[in-house]
Amino acid sequence: MNRRRIVAVALFAALGVILVRDSINTWNYTRSVNMGIVVSAFSGVFLVTAALKMALTDRPIIKSRQIRTVIRWIIIACLVFFIVAEGLIIADPYLHRAELAGNVDWLLVLGCRIWPDGSPTLALANRLDKAAEYYSEHPHVKIIVSGGQGADEPIPEAESMAEYLVKRGIPEVSIITEPRSTSTMENFRFSRDLLPPDLEEPVKLVFVTSDFHVLRARILAKRNGFEAYAIPAPTPSVILINSYLREFFAFIKSMLVDY
């Protein structure tokens, strides 16, 4: 093999192993299958298979040069789109920080999965800790905890979230629970229903969610009549790659259908 082919084989094999290992680690943590796990696993297997094929034979998988060229440009276009979208997802938390909001009366915490015993996962606990920190500096705000009950969850996420915040010393009278939502769009839609109807829109609020989720959440907040500013919570390292990969597909879906 020439040097260029060796580099390609090594790169494909390394990326493939990383993606497969990421899928395994994420499944071990969540014990559930999602788009991020499926895409990561299949992409990893494909890259490893392609690396083996390139290492064992010089013959191209697709014989037609024209078809190979078309496929190559399609892959390049998809990679460029993916990189641009991920760049926006990574940058947005820094562009719409809570510090820019000024005075607000509402703090919305977006829910995510809880454990079978009803306690928050680390990702959700990180969001709630950020909310508690904000409340300690702005004790006049009302905190809305938003999250429904999944098929494998013993209680609505909002109930678990409220209990966690109370244990952190936040008064129950300062917490409003929204236990119906099953998506980010519903987080904002149902939370808006809990606010006074005479509030002039857009309603300014601060919301807390995981860092990878800020861009999509902020756009959906605007679609529901909010002027939203974000407090990004750190994503657990074990699901970091998978979360950003899954968010790419969730972002596309939300931009097309969540209205």
Number of domains: 2
- What topology, given as strand order, has the largest sheet? 3-2-1-4-5
For the residues shown, what is the average pLDDT? 93
Number of strands: 5
Q: Which band does the percent of strand residues land in?
A: 5-15%
Provide the helix percentage.
Answer: 55-70%
**Biggest beta sheet summary:** 5 strands, parallel
Encode the helix/strand succession as letters: HHHEHEHEHEHEH
Stretches where pLDDT is under 50 for at least 5 consecutive residues are none
How would you characterize the overall build of this protein?
Helix 2 crosses helix 8, helix 3 crosses helix 8 and helix 6 (184-194) packs across helix 7 (214-223). Strands 3-2-1-4-5 form a 5-stranded parallel sheet. With 259 residues, it is an alpha/beta fold. Helices cover 57% and strands 12% of the residues. It has helices spanning 3-30, 35-56, 65-95, 122-137, 157-167, 184-194, 214-223, 240-257, and strands at 106-110, 142-146, 175-178, 203-210, 226-233. It has 2 domains: 3-95, no CATH class; 98-257, Rossmann fold (3-Layer(aba) Sandwich), CATH 3.40.50.620. Helix 5 (157-167) links the parallel strand 2 (142-146) and strand 3 (175-178).
